[in-house]
Specification:
The complex is a heterotrimer of chains A (369), B (415) and C (173). With 369 residues, chain A is α+β, with helices and mostly antiparallel strands. Chain A is 48% helix and 14% strand. Chain A is built from 15 helices and nine strands. In chain A, helix 4 packs antiparallel against helix 5 and helix 4 packs antiparallel against helix 11. In chain B, helix 5 runs antiparallel to helix 6, helix 8 runs antiparallel to helix 9 and helix 10 runs parallel beside helix 13. The chains are: A alpha+beta (369), B mainly alpha (415), C alpha/beta (173).
């Protein structure tokens, strides 16, 4: 009689589809996954310990490098936490600029993430190239505002580093004209595509109660049917002034997460349109002029969180009254979203593992810190 | 369990095809998207508001379009005109640098040992710099700014530890790459620079590649100033002919000529404004006189005489005036019927021994002529001064002649 | 489902889980300076729970109060006070601010019952706490290092871990 054996193989850490240096220890029986253990730490830079030795302002460029795909969102979470701890007020115009930047980041994250997901499915960078084109436009805007494309270092305590340059709003208006076309085209290209549906429908199902138990956040949670969005659950900044919807899925498979992200791009565009309409009437300047940047918060602890494109990004800071944080902890969404990876992959094929991982949308900078 | 949300709705995403299709037709339809992109790729994209077309930027044939705010790698600024660096070594950039790659030492006055608002050595480790821009943001003197270079690849690792002489850029360079940012900072930066310059002794605080030149020039000018008020027939001791090929008057003449040619715009990177000799805007007459003086000086030097350090033709308005006055006095004295003091007619100063001798001779002759009661013609006028005009010596000669004329019976003579 | 603030939570927990709630004493965060103004101690309104009761308290929050979303387990090393403080942060699925439970364990024997069997989401948080601080979670199904390699010795985020140079890198780094 033939006997089968379970085989333990490594997917990664060097693998083009693992979204960074990430290793999955899979136990396979033939092609079917029996068990999967994620192993990471290859990008561990001990960011939290570095942060304890830097002052609060010096940590800002390091937060860029956490989720290096969306630097503005990291900056936002950190600035929010420190402002809560110190008690700095942010002028209205600065809030509008912040939300504008974060929503642009959300669009560019989803454009890239979906491109990579489609790449993982074997469609070889068609959508990725289209998505990268949209990203380039937005990155050009970031470059003209903050000085760098990816490592923006744009947020400061009490506002943003610099006001928007003169050509920012016209170019943004131009971009908004192109945006519905991009999303519609993406849907036309992908949504009904039979191959995509075969490869993503019913794959990697994360049931709703399991999603909550695993404390996943972001599009993964919403794809599973729980309508939890930090922007609506505990509104921060000026999100309570904008109309936008929260898309949720029903089944919790890869297809649902894909659709949720596409819809979120539309909602982000909606928010940006409202910002463009309301920004000229905003009062204040781009930064609170009374806010000192070398802050010395009072003794205390704070947790500040935002809805980053990948999920809930939070900073837990403990201050001992000096200029350096006593404890600086990052609650990284990609890290926690990896918890159910084993459960999600069990019973599927090896080829599906890559697709499921792509649908969770991780960035190793965040996972490993 | 669902949250109640305001200003929005919870939208369930619609799965599956939006319309009934034959199996496989959605794929064909999506190929239409790819087809459209392919067709449009033959056209260059018009702008942001289009998602079709080619966006390719043919780098490096096309230079990269960099917005003004782009930042990569810090540099230190120095002033074009004075050569002074704006940095005062206040240490704010080194303190704020997150990876701590900036190191500097403060300049000290060599005489007193006190700290001076200038920087002695400044090091940035380019390989660890994350170009966050904090140093440029906090600098109170606007001296460290973010450059925009990104083509820094090298195989020489130690060269990425950059020292001050490689970090310096003129302000004109930064104003060229970031005009709006510099325009905001310019006024206060230059004002603070003036304050710093006042407190910097000697050549401390000048950009390294300019220090030698400026120090030498200053020495030269100091020497020229020391010799400019000509002593009594004394040749100037420290002729600055040592290091330079041109004498100060010749240099001044050259500069004046250049200025005349350029129409009063300052010459290109003029390191330091030359001092007194070129104070006057050039005019053709002055130019000629300056050239003449230069030739005379060369001849005098060739003759083995000590090079006259007296400034050339338009040395200064004061001297010119004095010479004119002496001439007028001589004329008046002559008109009054006194014995013509011969020497003043020849205001040319005997700055060389030969001329001095000739002047003495003329004075003696005048005395004799006066003693003889003749109205001596201005014989010594025939003595053309072979030396460059020395107004003060001319004045002196005039005075002596007057004295001689006043005391015709004084046998002692002026000498 | 009611939204509670910290005081209400403490009241309810004291009532329903007797013996779980401890008095939240202020903590000295860093070593106080020899002279000059002394920094204040860290006070917080969050409920301090007995470490052995943490699982019961957490499941009470989830089942009775509806705070089903465990966001974060943060560890803080208070070297001066010689304790580790763990902060468990819960959110209500319907939205609203967080409720936090804190537990304190001594630094020399940091053992905490693991929340993972009851709450799978705590898995990676606890592994991270184990890897970086050395806190042992009793009952964790797979308590292994998560960032550092398995044979690594030492707990990097502890305040007494050498910031420069150790036996892996050498003294000069």
């Amino acid at each position: 009689m033939l006997k089968t054996e379970e085989l333990q193989i490594n997917i990664g850490p060097q693998h083009p589809s693992t979204h960074g240096v990430f290793r999955m220890l899979v136990t396979v029986d033939g092609e079917t996954i029996m068990d999967l253990k994620p192993v990471f730490g290859y990008l561990h830079r001990n960011h939290e310990q570095i942060a304890e030795q830097n002052t609060y302002l010096q940590n800002m460029p390091y937060t860029d490098r956490l989720d290096y795909f969306n630097s503005m969102a990291n900056n936002h979470a950190y600035a929010l936490a420190v402002e809560k701890l110190v008690g700095i007020e942010v002028p209205e115009r600065a809030e509008y600029i912040r939300v504008l930047m974060v929503e642009l980041t959300r669009i560019l994250n989803h454009a890239g993430a979906l491109g990579f997901l489609i790449n993982d499915m074997g469609m070889w960078q068609t959508q990725l190239a289209f998505g990268m084109r949209e990203r380039e436009k937005i990155l050009d805007l970031f470059e003209s505002a903050s000085g760098a494309r990816l490592m923006c270092n744009y947020f400061r305590f009490g506002g943003v580093a610099r006001d928007l340059p003169a050509d920012f709003m016209p170019r943004l208006a131009d971009l908004l004209k192109a945006m519905p076309g991009f999303v519609d085209e993406m849907e036309r290209l992908l949504r009904d595509n039979e191959i995509l549906m075969q490869r993503s429908e019913g794959i990697g199902i994360l049931p709703r109660d399991l999603a909550l138990a695993y404390s996943v956040t972001g599009p993964v949670l919403r794809g599973s049917g729980v309508a939890y969005d930090v922007r609506k659950a505990e509104p921060y900044s000026i999100y309570d002034r904008f109309d936008f919807d929260v898309p949720v899925g029903s089944v919790g498979d890869v297809y649902d997460r894909f659709l949720v992200r596409v819809e979120e791009m539309r909602q982000s565009r909606r928010i940006i349109e409202q910002i463009v309409a309301q920004l000229p009437d905003a009062t204040g300047s781009h930064i609170n002029p009374k806010a000192r940047q070398n802050v010395k918060p009072p003794v205390g602890d704070v947790y500040g969180r935002v809805e980053s494109p990948k999920g809930e990004l939070g900073f837990y800071l403990v201050s001992d009254g000096s200029g350096k944080p006593y404890r600086y902890k990052v609650r990284a969404p990609s890290f926690i979203n990896l918890t159910p990876l084993g459960d999600m992959c069990r019973g599927y094929k090896v080829a599906d593992v890559v697709v499921i991982l792509g649908s969770i949308d991780i960035v190793m900078g965040e996972v490993d810190r | 369990m669902s949250i109640q949300i305001e200003r929005g709705a919870i939208v369930a995403v619609a799965r599956g095809s939006q319309r009934a299709r034959l199996p496989g037709m959605a794929m064909v339809d999506s190929m239409g998207v790819v087809w459209k992109h392919w067709v449009e790729s033959f056209r260059k994209n018009r702008g942001f508001s289009d998602i079709h077309g080619t966006f390719t930027q043919e780098y490096p044939e096309e230079p990269a379009k960099i917005p003004e705010a782009y930042r990569n790698m810090p540099v230190l600024l120095y002033d074009d005109e004075t050569g002074h660096e704006l940095c005062t070594s206040c240490y704010q950039c080194a303190r704020i640098c997150p990876p701590q790659v900036i190191h500097m030492t403060q300049a000290k006055d060599p005489v007193t040992g006190k700290a001076v608002p200038a920087v002695a050595e400044f090091v940035i480790e380019y390989d660890a710099c994350m170009s966050c821009g904090f140093c440029a943001e906090v600098c109170p003197f606007d001296s460290i700014k973010m450059d925009q270079v990104f083509e820094l690849s090298t195989d020489d690792r130690p060269s990425l530890t950059v020292f001050k002489h490689d970090l310096g850029r003129p302000i004109s360079y930064y104003a060229g790459i970031a005009p709006n940012l510099w325009a905001e900072a310019k006024e206060s930066a230059l004002k603070k620079l003036q304050n710093s310059i006042k407190r910097r002794p000697d050549v401390l605080g000048i950009a390294p590649h300019l220090t030698e030149k400026i120090a030498a020039r200053r020495r030269e000018l100091a020497a020229a100033a020391a010799a400019a008020p000509p002593p009594v027939a004394a040749p100037p001791a420290d002729a600055p002919a040592a290091a330079k090929k041109l004498t100060p008057e010749e240099k001044a003449a050259k500069l004046a000529a250049m200025r005349a040619g350029k129409g009063a715009t300052p010459a290109a990177p003029a390191v330091e404004a030359p001092a007194a000799p070129a104070a006057e805007p050039a005019s053709p007459a002055d130019e000629k006189a300056a050239k003449l003086a230069a030739i005379r000086a060369k001849n005098a030097a060739a003759k083995g005489d000590v090079a006259p350090a007296a400034p050339a033709a338009p040395a200064s308005p004061a001297d010119e005036k004095a010479a004119k006055l002496a001439a007028i006095r001589a004329k008046n004295a002559a008109a009054k019927g006194e014995v013509a003091p011969a020497a003043p007619v020849a205001p040319a100063a005997p700055a060389s021994p030969a001329d001095e001798k000739a002047a003495k001779l003329a004075a003696i002759r005048a005395k004799n002529a006066a003693a003889k009661g003749e109205v001596a013609p201005a014989a010594p006028a025939a003595e053309p001064p072979a030396a460059p005009l020395d107004e003060k010596a001319a004045r002196l000669a005039a005075i002596r002649a007057k004295n001689a004329a006043k005391q015709p019976d004084d046998a002692s003579g002026p000498e | 489902m009611p939204r509670l603030n910290a005081e209400e939570l403490r009241a309810r927990l004291s009532r329903d889980l007797p013996g779980a709630v401890l008095a939240n004493t202020p903590l000295q965060v860093s070593a106080p300076p020899a002279h000059g103004p002394q920094p204040a101690k860290l006070t917080s309104a969050d409920t301090l729970v007995d470490p052995t009761q943490i699982v019961a308290a957490a499941t009470y929050l989830r089942d009775t109060l509806g705070y089903a979303f465990l966001s974060d387990i943060a560890v803080v090393d208070y070297l001066v006070e010689d304790i580790f403080e763990l902060v468990y942060r819960f959110y209500n699925v319907e939205g609203g601010p967080a409720l936090a439970l804190k537990i304190r364990v001594p630094r020399d024997v940091p053992e905490v019952p693991s929340l993972t069997p009851a709450w799978p989401g705590a898995n990676f948080h606890e592994r991270e706490a184990f890897d970086l601080y050395g806190i042992t979670f009793i009952g964790h199904p797979f308590l292994r290092r998560i960032y550092m390699w398995d044979e690594f010795e030492g707990f990097p985020m502890r305040k007494d871990f050498p910031r420069q140079g150790d036996k892996y890198i050498g003294e000069d780094e």
